[in-house]
Amino acid sequence: MNKIINIKEAPNAVGSYSQAIKTENLLYLSGQIGINPDTNMLVSGIKEQTKQIMENLYNILKSEKLDFSDAVKTEIFLDNMDDFGTVDKVYATYFDNYFPSRQTIGGLQLPKGALVEISMIASLNS
């Protein structure tokens, strides 16, 4: 049976979706944008948004006793591909010599005018 994950330490969904879904073997984390869950406001700047996203993802992982070492795949969506280097530099600081598989897509219009969105799949069997 699948379990819906919704925690207060990550922003509420901005549409009809859950923060994450836990299956028997995997945790699927919905795309996060840089919304601060305390203020429900989008933080400004590409570095700040990326950091906030990674903190939101971490809080969801932590709620299921996981961390970034359990991530198996991420997807990064960028408003402007020129921000790739900045996002990658911040993103890399959250992993300890282990990086999940990843795809990055640019040139997108993201919800609420966000500059970056990141989704993740984590293994429950790591």
Strand order of the largest sheet: 1-2-3-8-6-7
Count of helix runs? 2
CATH top level class name: Alpha Beta
Low-pLDDT stretches: none
Estimated helix fraction: 10-25%
CATH level 4 superfamily:
RutC-like
User: Approximately how much beta-strand content do the residues carry?
Assistant: 25-35%
Which of globular, elongated, flat, extended, rod-shaped describes the shape?
globular
Per DSSP E runs of 2 or more residues, the count of β-strands stands at 8
Any idea what the CATH architecture is? 2-Layer Sandwich
What would the CATH topology be? Answer: 60s Ribosomal Protein L30, Chain: A
The number of distinct structural domains comes to 1
The helix/strand class is alpha+beta
- Give a quick account of the main beta sheet: strands, pairing sense, barrel closure: 6 strands, mixed
Radius of gyration (CA) equals 14 Å
The helix/strand order is EEEEEHEHEE
Distance from first to last alpha carbon:
20 Å
Mean pLDDT over the full residue set:
96
